[in-house]
Each structure stands twice: as structure tokens, then as C-alpha cells.
Design a protein that fits this description.
Site (Transition state stabilizer): 17
Number of strands: 5
Radius of gyration: 14 Å
Largest sheet: 5 strands, parallel
Strand content: 15-25%
Bound molecules: 1,3,4-trihydroxy-5-OXO-cyclohexanecarboxylic acid
Oligomer: single chain
Shape: globular
Family: Belongs to the type-II 3-dehydroquinase family.
CATH architecture: 3-Layer(aba) Sandwich
Subunit structure: Homododecamer.
Structural class: alpha/beta
Protein name: 3-dehydroquinate dehydratase
CATH class: Alpha Beta
Strand order of the largest sheet: 2-1-3-4-5
Distance between the termini: 9 Å
Order of helices and strands: EHHEHEHEEH
CATH topology: Rossmann fold
Keywords: Amino-acid biosynthesis, Aromatic amino acid biosynthesis, Lyase
Helix content: 25-40%
Number of helices: 5
């Protein structure tokens, strides 16, 4: 089983960015934890602050991987291009958010991506990624 986690803009700053919202762990640390929790899964990780790079990555993995876990971060609420890419590929996508976007500003309540996903995991901190992986098992 091959799964990739794709993180969008500013998620490279996890650990230092608004720790009261996103926690104080880096994603690189947490990724090691995830790999040890799921030793039989081939887990890949990609992060970009650039919308087009996320679209290209979705296209490149989206016809061969078994699952994609996508936290498009702020692009969730703005990007028709990423939503179209999720719609265009055949690999199922699970959308993830670390924070509970529904308890935050109104502009975070809309996701252009959700309609084209297998499901959405929101608000469980970094554990949201673990729950998303479990949804593919
Ligand atoms: C986020 C929520 C988004 O609203 C925000 O722009 C992010 C992170 C989350 O994981 O909680 O950058 O996707």
C-alpha cells in the first residue's frame, strides 16, 4: 500500500507557527512517528507553498498511489485549481486539517476540495493524519 501526504502552504512551519493552534511538533518529527506506526505502508511526504506544485504532485501520484492525504492549508478555501486536480485523478483523496476549521474564522468554513474527496478529518491535531491513514486500511 502506497500513500502520500501532501501538505500545503505554511505547514513547513509546524512547530513554530501559532503553536496554540497547530501544536509544537514539527511535521518531520511526526512523519517519523507515522512511519513507525504503519511499518507495512510505504508513506511518502511532500510539502509546497506553491499552488501549481501541489497540482503537479497530485497529477503525478494520482493515477498510481493507493491513497492521498491532502492538507491544502489555506488553498483549501481558495483553490479551484487544486479542487479540479482532486476531481481529475483516480486515487482517492482524504482531506485533513489539524485545527477545527469550523471553530475558526468564517472563511475557513468553506472547502472547494471536500466535495471530491473520500472523506475529511478535521480538528484532531496531528493525529488527524493518523486517522486519515487508518481510513485507507
Ligand atoms: C489548516 C487550516 C487552514 O484554514 C489554514 O489555512 C492552514 C492549516 C489546518 O490544518 O488546520 O494553514 O489546513
Amino acid at each position: 500500500m502506497k500513500i502520500i501526504i501532501i501538505n500545503g502552504p505554511n505547514l513547513n512551519l509546524l512547530g513554530t507557527r501559532e503553536p496554540h493552534i497547530y501544536g509544537d511538533n514539527t511535521f518531520e518529527n511526526y512523519f517519523e512517528v507515522l512511519k513507525s506506526k504503519f511499518p507495512t505502508i510505504t508513506l511518502d511526504y511532500f510539502q509546497s507553498n506553491i499552488e501549481g506544485e501541489i497540482i503537479t504532485k497530485l497529477q503525478n501520484v494520482g493515477f498510481s498511489y493507493d491513497g492521498i492525504i491532502l492538507n491544502a492549508a489555506a488553498y483549501t478555501h481558495t483553490s479551484i485549481g487544486i479542487a479540479d486536480a482532486v476531481k481529475a485523478i483516480t486515487t482517492p483523496v482524504v482531506e485533513v486539517h489539524i485545527s477545527n476549521t469550523f471553530s475558526r474564522e468564517n472563511f475557513r468554513h468553506q472547502s472547494f476540495i471536500s466535495p471530491y474527496t473520500k472523506g475529511v478529518v478535521i480538528g484532531f491535531g496531528l493525529q488527524s493524519y493518523q486517522l486519515a491513514i487508518q481510513s485507507f486500511l
